[in-house]
Amino acid sequence: MPERRIPVQRRKLLLDVVIFRPDPLDFTEFSARGLIDTGATVSGIGPRVVEALGLVSHGKNRLGSATEERLVDYYLFRLGLTTSVTDAPQWPFVFDRIDGFSWTRDTEFDVIMGMDVLTQCELRLVRDNCTLAFG
Amino acid sequence: MDADAQRREIDANYDFLQRHLTDMLADHAGEYALLKSCKVVGYYGKVGSAYDEGMRRFPDGRFSIQEVTDEPLHLGFWSVAGT
Question: Distance (Å, rounded) from C-alpha B37 to C-alpha B28?
Fold first, then answer.
């Protein structure tokens, strides 16, 4: 199973990912920064991804947090991961379509990888050594 | 795609889903409902299947997909969605 080493940065697990539109034959891509978040039951995307790929919402749902609950727009997209970050071309492993929430504020990451994706992977965190196996 | 029309489609279908959610949960909890003009086109186990069928039947993309659930999805990084 392909494996990706993830540096622990300021108590966050951040990695480079690739986001595609939901159509299986559309490989227009957007290189994005992803946050691994085991506290999120679903994955989500930020405003830069929505704008860059011209995504159109196909639903809305309640999203709960520690302090409130609100309705947010949902978008379908595909998430791609590679085993390492190099200059050499590498075709990513692409997960099936994700029904993810969206947010509007600028953040240091563009994608939240929630438990819907992480339960398809092997995530290991031992002290500050983190690896994510997938595929 | 007309963004305002798609917004109206999503809003109307969401209201329809909420009004019929109790009945839907009995047989379709956890599935994805493909909705068009306040009618259920079908239920699907995977959201991708619902999307593919939606695009096949409605090439203009004017439809919505809603998970059949009465539980809010939860966000760990709460401050992001809070804005």
Answer: 20
Q: What is the pLDDT of residues B40-71, one digit of tens each?
A: 999 999 999 999 999 999 999 999 999 999 98
Cβ-based burial of A94 (10 A; exposed 0-12, middle 13-18, buried ≥19): middle
- Give CA separation, A59 vs A32, A48, B51, in Å: 23, 19, 11
Q: Cβ of A9: how many Cβ atoms within 10 Å?
A: 11
Residues of B contacting chain A (CB within 8 angstroms): 1, 3, 6-7, 10-11, 13-14, 32, 46-48, 51-52, 54-55, 61, 63-67, 72-83
The tens digit of pLDDT for each residue in A37-47 reads 998 999 999 99
